[in-house]
Structure formats: structure tokens, C-alpha cells
Amino acid sequence: MNRRQKRRWEEIFFKTVMRGSLLLIAVVLGLIVVSITWKGIGALNWQMLTQAPQGGFYMGKEGGILNAITGSLLLAVGATALALVSALPVVFYLHAYAGRSRWVSGVRLALDVLWGIPSIVYGAFGFTLMLLVGLRASLLGGIIALTLVELPILARTMDEVLRMVPSDLKEATRALGTTRLELTGILLRQTIPGLVTAVLLAFGRGIGDAASVLFTAGYTDNMPQSLLRPVASLPLAVFFQLNTPFPEVQERAYASALVLMMLVLVISLLSRLSLKLLGKYVVR
Amino acid sequence: MHNIAPHLSIRNLNVWLDAQHVLKDIAADIPRRCITAIVGPSGCGKTTLLRSLNRLVELGPNVRITGKVLFDDTDIYHPGMDVAEVRTRIGLLAQKPFPLPMSIYDNVAYGPRIHGTARTGLDQTVHSCLQAAQLWDEVADRLKAPATELSAGQQQRLCLARALAVKPDILLCDESTSALDPISARGIEDLLLTLKTDYTIVLVTHDLDQARRLADYVIFLWLGEVIEQGPAADLFENPAQDFTRAYLEREIG
Ligand SMILES: Nc1ncnc2c1ncn2[C@@H]1O[C@H](COP(=O)(O)OP(=O)(O)OP(=O)(O)O)[C@@H](O)[C@H]1O
Ligand SMILES: [Mg+2]
Fold first, then answer.
1. Helix (H, G, I), strand (E, B) or coil at B98
2. Could you say which of A16, A129, A157, A251 would form a disulfide bridge with A43 (CB–CB 3.0 to 4.6 Å)?
3. In angstroms, rounded to a whole number, what is the distance separating the alpha carbons of residues A236 and A258?
């Protein structure tokens, strides 16, 4: 085999491997989506989406999961907002001010470790914190625990997005006599599509997390009422309904999972759209 | 031109990048309202020297700098110096043009906006700077388009317009015509010649003919050291060093 043929075969081989792994992922994802839809679509109806559970809901009687839908949205929106507010300054500090010191790699390492911690640990930690300040299972408690889960994800992803900024851009900006704060503004313009993706990634993780809200947000059949009262959430709604012995309730669990999936899908599509609109001026 | 005080005066400047001694004991004067050309073979430290004249060099990793650069008798490396102010008054056009992530118009308007100059007539400023940079005719009908849509040569001129809009006292140009066709390049050269009535210009170029056409004063750099410097006429016609003569006659480099 001469050199040209060898390179051609290499190309074919790696292309095949890549296509194979793509296929594998697509098949697994497809299986999950299809089986959830298959099992849940029958139970999905208007009532399910527009009502909170009535008496006997978990034995197959009237009601819906509106409590869990609104609860999950409130939890995830609140936590993502809090995590964003705390992560943005950290990340921009790392990039516009701190340079390349050992302190910076220390912060990165810490965030990586935090990312790897199972969310049940954050749940337990949040719960201990709440006990300390006398807060009971509530929307606020859940938001705080979820913020802890999302913060490292958000900070590290945004950090990577900012690391992709060419140093030439920073220098071109500084060469115009900008201050560091003004440089931050330019960095924001350049990275906004990536930052939006990071936020949605964190949001998706937050809305799907069950373990961290188990103790901290609790669960209730009521609609969310105040920051200091417990709220329901979709992952836990799936969990509780799946644990009942009644097939029709289990079917509703799949329907709830389907709703959760749809929410994440809509968010992803919105993010695609915003990327298109926001990415217009980005320098590559 | 030697009877007036130099605009920039480089004193014993040493720069290390990653422990490599890139600039060695540079001493040179940049005369006011003249064009000074820095010439020398690739890798001799021209870009590094230019970037140390407005403190951009220190943004890189592991940089060590000693010595002074006096700008109207104040050392720009003095600890109390406002770096943003230094870079506002000493503008630099990088070797690789890099547009900001915004529209063509906003790229030029950015400097006047942040510095609060040209509040009135921002459109006028943008227009005149783009015109000066020989770009106006090509972009007049798409000022709101992303700057990244421009070709490399157009981006180079956009960066020139952007630098002019800041209204610096000194303009440092790193091979600013390298990506241009001969006609646009001549246009930029003509611009630099008109600009020198108001600005002090330092330019790095590989094109010795360009240096001959433009420069009033020349600094010849070799392996990080100044081999020879002086008025362009003397240096080109009658170099004091055999080394300089050899380079000018394209025997080395
Ligand atoms: N980040 C760096 N780390 C170590 N050495 C560097 C770094 N950047 C540049 N150098 C070295 O410094 C020397 C001078 O580089 P510089 O870019 O100033 O050269 P130049 O004269 O502008 O070359 P050219 O004409 O090709 O643009 C080169 O030998 C280069 O290898
Ligand atoms: Mg160079």
C-alpha cells in the first residue's frame, strides 16, 4: 500500500468509527425518547397539564401535575439566575483581571471537583445549612441547593467559553486604551452565544435534578405559594408516581417525564435561535 | 529634526519573553512628527519593540521588562502610570488585523465612544476615519454589517481607521500594508505621509523600498540589538556599519 492509499484508508476508517459512535448515541437517545413517549402519551391530556393533584390522584383519580411543572420551572429559573449572578463575576475576574497565576488554576480545580460531586450531597449540604438558619423544606431551600449544583457547571463552562477568546482580540481591544472593565464588555460581546449555551446547559441540568431538591424543596400537591413553602418538582413527580403500584399512575409518571423532556427541548430550540441572532458579530 | 526633543526616547530597554532575551539594551530616539521605520530580518524583535512602546508586550505570559521608555519625558513604565491612558495616546496597529465583534461602524466608533470624544458628530468621525484609511467607498453601503465579513486587507484598513478614531499622539504600525494590493498600499503610504504633520509615526516594515519612500529616520535591528540608527538619507545612502550595508544590499537576512 503506498502512502496515498494508506491515508485514504485511514480517513475511511476514522470516518466509519465516528459515524458508528454517532449512530450509537442517536439510537440510545431515540430509544429513550420513543419508550417514554410510547408509555406516557396515553396519559397525557389537558387536565394533566392544567391541574394540581386532587384527592386520590396517586391512586389514579382526578388531577394533574401543574404543581410540579410550575415548581420545577420556578426552581430551575431561580437557581439558574442565582448561579449566573454568582458565576459571571468569578469568570470575568479570572479572564480580565487575574491573568495566569497559580490562584487561577486553583479556582479551576476547585470548580472541577465541585462539578463532580453528586447532587444528593448538595441536597444534604443545603439541608444542613437550612437547619442551621431554621429554614424548612421550601422553594427557597430548593433554589439554594440547585444553585450549588449549577454553579460549578455554569462557571466552568463559561470559563471554557472565555478561554476560547483569541488573545489577539484582547490585545486589539487593549491597544485602543480600554480599561479592564471595557475589555470585559468586549469579551461579553464576543462570547455571548457560548455563554447563553452554558446557561441553558445549567438550566437543563437544574430542571432535571431530583436528588438536590428531595430534602430541600420537599414536595406538595399544592401549587407553589411562597418562597418559604415547599414546592413540587417534575423529577420527583416522576419518581413518586412510578413508585405506586397502580399502572395508570405509572403511566402518568411517563407522561410527566415526557413533559420534562419537552420543556428541555423547547429551551434548547430557543437557545439555537438565540445563537443565530446573537452570533452575528462574533469574530472567529 | 534633531534640534527638537524626541517624542519617545527608549533607554536601556530589555525584554525577555519566556526567558528568551528578545530585546537587548535598546537605546533609540523617536523624533516628533516624523516617520521612523524599524527594519531588520524576520524574528529580530521588531514587533516586540513596537509592542513595548505602548506596554502591550506585558500582556503576554512570562514577560520581563527593564529599562525606560520616555514619552515626553515621562517614563511609560513608571509604576504610577495609567496604562489605558498610555495606550490611548500611543496607538498600535497590530501585524495581524483583528476586528472587534461588532459592526463596521461600531468598530470605528468604539474608541471615540469609550473615550467620550467626538460626542457630537460621531458619524462624521467615522466617515473621516474610514475615508482616511481608504475604506469608505467599499463599506459606505454596509456600515451595519459585521466587521468579520471584510477581507483581510479591508480588515487591515478597518483597524487603521479604528486606531485613527482614538486620535492618538503616536501611531505604531506593524506591517500595516502587508495584506494590501499595491494601490491600496500606496494609498495608506500617502495617508501616513499626510498624517505626519500631526502625528509621530513608527512603522515596522519588511519592504525596504517602502521604508525608503516613507521614513525620515531608520532603526536597524538585528537579533534584538540596535545595529544602527539615524536619518533615513544617511542610513540608506551611507551606512556606517558593514552589517547594515550587507542587509540593505540583501546579502543577509
Ligand atoms: N511568546 C514568546 N515566547 C518566546 N519567544 C517569543 C515569543 N514571542 C516572540 N518570541 C521570539 O521573539 C523574537 C522576536 O519576535 P518578533 O515577533 O518581535 O519578531 P519580528 O521582528 O516582528 O519578526 P517578523 O518580521 O517575522 O514579524 C523571535 O525570535 C521570537 O521567536
Ligand atoms: Mg513582526
1. coil
2. A251
3. 14
Encode B8-35 in three state secondary structure: EEEEEEEEEECCEEEEEEEEEEECCCCE
Q: Residue B131 sits in a domain of what CATH number? A: 3.40.50.300
DSSP, res B103: B
Residue B119, pLDDT above cutoff 80: no
* pLDDT on residue B61: 84
- Residue B2 maps to a domain: no
Q: How many domains does chain B have?
A: 1
B1 found inside a domain: no
**By residue range, what is the domain housing residue B205?**
8-76+84-248
Q: How far is the CA of B252 from the centre of ligand 2 (A)?
A: 18
The rounded Å distance from CA B43 to ligand 1 centre is 5
> Ligand 2 mean position to B43 CA, how many Å?
7
- The residue of A173, A281, A282, A284 whose CB has the most chain B CBs within 10 angstroms, and thus the best one to mutate to test that interface, is A281
DSSP single-letter state for residue A94 = I
**CA-based nearest residue in chain B for residue A178:** B84
Report the alpha-carbon angle A81-A84-A85, nearest 5.
85
Grid cell of A155 as nine digits: 462557571
Query: What's this model's pTM, rounded to 2 decimal places?
Result: 0.83
Contact B147 CB / ligand 1 (< 6 Å): no
Kindly state if the Cβ of B42 falls inside 6 Å of ligand 1.
yes
Pick from A100, A177, A283: CB nearest B84:
A177
Sheet holding B90-93, edge to edge: B90-93, B170-174, B200-204, B35-39, B217-222, B225-231
Cβ(B55) – ligand 1 distance below 6 Å: no
Distance of alpha carbon A176 from alpha carbon B83, whole angstroms? 11
